[in-house]
Amino acid sequence: MSSLPPKEEMSRAYQKSDPSYDGIFYLGVRTTGVFCRPSCGARKPLPTNVEFFATPREALFAGYRPCKRCRPLSAVGEPPEWAGKLLSTIEEDPSRRYSDAILRSMDIDPAKARRFFKKNYGMTFQAYCRGRRLSTAFDRIRKGDTLDEVTLGHGFESHSGFRDAFVRTFGTPPGHADSAECVTVTWIESPLGPLIAGSTADRLILLEFTDRRMLEAQIQTIRRHFKSPIVPGENGILRQVRKELREYFSGQLKKFTIPLACPGSQFQERVWGELQRIPYGRTVSYEELASRVGVPGAQRAVGHSNGLNRIAIVIPCHRVVNKSGELGGYGGGLWRKKALLELERGQRSFVFARSA
Predict the structure, then answer these.
(1) Which of 36, 58, 76, 278 counts the most CB atoms within 10 A of its CB?
(2) Measuring CA to CA, which residue among 230, 219, 129, 124 is closest to residue 171?
């Protein structure tokens, strides 16, 4: 099970219907077989009848059904309000340092911030802030700013402190920034829940729902393949994928044009390449996909490669179903697979909760 807050803290949160914990954990009620968001306004169950989960998927696999009142599967596509406000504040001034005292002055528990960023970005809140400062500095150096301008303008107290932090992150001194590479990651809102997207300077390499259990392993795989530090930020590729996802969910885009990089084994790359040839609105069976990649009968291996796909939606592993027509598996949750297929068949429309 994924990391969860202390049980006492979660108990207090759901007893108070605290919406700031929505997305941090879910509670299953043994007496009703239903699972809810912490903010659910339904009558509070006894603590002895409650079980806690990190994701809706864990609750579903434990046999609970979603609450009809708080609709825990109806993702609004944005982080909890407190986290969204914090992310916006950081983007307004990435050079600022955020102490625990500053977080508390914003009515944010530092421990909760650490857990949220660790779960959704694979790093603590302070690591995220350091990475954001460094990625901004990295970009300014590439655009011609002097070391003095970057050091003083991005929250670093000295040249040596900046150099040390830069080398630890990028593996090269600031003066060699033109030749250094990094993987930039960001949060993208969607009607099916938030995604984490990652790219190099010219290729999308990661697009995963933030509640996916495989996310941490996928990030480690990226570190291994690209041998680059991972830092939060924005670039042209991430802006492009955000725009194309918006058009896709609105029904306007049927073929993604974003350039991709998805290294893997030869078999995996054949499977992922063939997935991209499945037309919008169509599905193929695992058996047919195995034949298409030249290994008839290897449905299980094909399914495994599908599950290791690191670029959801754009590499459409959701278009592969069982031979019987049943959905089969999907790392992002069968409810999302069903919704994506319905969208592509014109049976569903989505509205974004707010402008991305």
Answers:
(1) 36
(2) 230
Of the given ranges (121-135, 183-197, 265-279), which has the lowest mean pLDDT? 121-135
Q: Determine the average pLDDT of the residues in 73-102.
A: 77
Q: Rounded to the nearest 10 degrees, how much is the dihedral formed by the CA atoms of 324, 329, 333, 334?
A: 10
Contact 135, 180 (CB under 8 A): no
Given 36, 40, 262, 317, the catalytic residue: 317
Q: What is the pTM of this model?
A: 0.58
Q: What is the dihedral of CA 145, 129, 127, 156, to 10 degrees?
A: 50
Catalytic-residue membership of 262 = no
**For domain 7-66, which architecture applies?**
3-Layer(aba) Sandwich (3.40)
| 81-180 homologous superfamily | Homeodomain-like (1.10.10.60)
In whole angstroms, what is the distance from residue 273 CA to residue 322 CA? 19
